[in-house]
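INFO  loader      accepted 1 record
INFO  loader      residues=124
INFO  predictor   begin
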Amino acid sequence: MNWLLVIAGAAVGAPLRYLTDRLVQARHATAFPWGTFTVNVAGCLVLGIVTGAVTAGAASSSAQLLLGTGLCGALTTYSTFSFETLRLAERGDRFFAAANVAASITAGLGAVYTGVALAQALWG
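INFO  predictor   done
INFO  writer      dumping tokens
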């Protein structure tokens, strides 16, 4: 049963990632990978909320599998982040490559901590 929850979450997360990435990137005429950055930070926020809710007892381990592992696992993408960063560096856009690394790590960690804090404020 657990694997069905992961699959169901991933079935929503993967197309959501693709559509969000395309929508966001189409609105920015820059080399910076805004689409990937957006889905990764959003996924960190959702994962923080889900983790905080499970820790507070407001959500079940099934919700964590569905939303945390399935949805967020398919929504976020470390491989695309890595590829886009490497591609920026190879093109000579070293500022954007470094900015992508720094901003993604900082915003991702900030989003997950914010999500956990929000969940604790709501259910803790």
